[in-house]
Amino acid sequence: MNIHEYQAKQVLKGYGAPVAEGVAIMSANEAESAAKSLPGPLYVVKSQIHAGGRGKGKFKELGPDAKGGVRLAKSVEDVVANVKEMLGNTLVTKQTGDEGKQVNRLYIEDGADIDRELYLSILVDRTVGRIAFVVSTEGGMDIEQVAHDTPDKIVTVAIDPEKGVTSGDVAKINDALKLSGDAAKDGESLFPILYEAFTEKDMSLLEVNPLIVMTNGHLRVLDAKVSFDNNALFRHSDIVELRDTTEEDEKEIEASKYDLAYVALDGNIGCMVNGAGLAMATMDIIKLYGAEPANFLDVGGGATKEKVTAAFKIITADPAVEGILVNIFGGIMKCDVIAEGVIAAVKEVGLKVPLVVRLEGTNVELGKKIINESGLNVISADDLDDAAKKIVAAVKG
């Protein structure tokens, strides 16, 4: 689960991280009072969407010469003018795609005198099986580009889970970021704070870009991006309350109600599979035969008829879907349950696109019998390769 920048900063502030004063608003009427509540005289007006690249983004409605989604303002009047121009319009960034995202929230923040911009993130480094800090002196830039062009400028410091962030770890991070004086002292407290927040709140990513050294020599978290492990949200009701469903795909929201693992993609072939590995293989083989998957959808090993029905309805609700591939290997999952769920869904929502079903495993003969006797126009497949060929051929006509 993702949250907005201002929410992430409030979470980190609760642990003692240095962040600027700021006010989130959802109406232009709130802009003046929000700005007047801050020290000033420099303000930053930030679009709050779940996507990066906001500063370089462009608003669809304002033309190519308009300012981006993060703007400096030198007066309260300037804040109000920017808010009126940004709020409610569609911001397009490199991460939103051409459709962009409507800006429904803005964060008005006190400005900062910046000396240097640094990059810091915490994530799970699966190569070493530990949580790790990833830091660079090249903050405020696209870290992917830095990694590609100058990988030597990115330093990873893995943390021993039994010891936490040690003085040795802090020294490595300070050295990698070239921090000294007050900034290095701030690092001694900040880095353990960020690690504590990451572990206690079950984060999957904590990114601070940029982490700044101000002209007074101290550190400040200038931006914050936080994602949480969905599987651990049951432990954090306070975090669940921060969820903004307007930033999520409606199909993914519906899938979450049934504990379905669903991710919308850009292709035209809908997939319903049991098991994440098999789902990935299914998407790969669809691409191998020249088409693109419309989604990742894992119904899980113990799905019920109701969950399968819901999954099928979610797939068919996507107008981009021109064909559906059901690929089930019945271990824990029973093929007859899948068959009953598919039939129930088709009878409820109809079937307007080609449907290929490949069943194998537990109760496979019963599953095939149920589908064959249903009267549905279903294309049967013997194996995954056969299924992929048939659905791609059916979609391409």
UniProtKB/TrEMBL annotation:
GO annotations of cellular component type: cytosol; succinate-CoA ligase complex
Assigned keywords, A-Z: ATP-binding, Ligase, Magnesium, Metal-binding, Nucleotide-binding, Tricarboxylic acid cycle
Catalytic activity, reaction form: (S)-malate + ATP + CoA = (S)-malyl-CoA + ADP + phosphate; GTP + succinate + CoA = succinyl-CoA + GDP + phosphate; succinate + ATP + CoA = succinyl-CoA + ADP + phosphate
Positions that bind Mg(2+): N209, D223
ATP-binding recorded as keyword: yes
SUPFAM superfamilies (UniProt xref): Glutathione synthetase ATP-binding domain-like (SSF56059), Succinyl-CoA synthetase domains (SSF52210)
Binding site for ATP: K46, G53, R54, G55, E109, A112, E117
Molecular functions (GO terms): ATP binding; magnesium ion binding; malate-CoA ligase activity; succinate-CoA ligase (ADP-forming) activity; succinate-CoA ligase (GDP-forming) activity
Function, in words: Succinyl-CoA synthetase functions in the citric acid cycle (TCA), coupling the hydrolysis of succinyl-CoA to the synthesis of either ATP or GTP and thus represents the only step of substrate-level phosphorylation in the TCA. The beta subunit provides nucleotide specificity of the enzyme and binds the substrate succinate, while the binding sites for coenzyme A and phosphate are found in the alpha subunit.
Protein name: Succinate--CoA ligase [ADP-forming] subunit beta
Source species: Aquibium oceanicum
Gene that specifies this protein: sucC
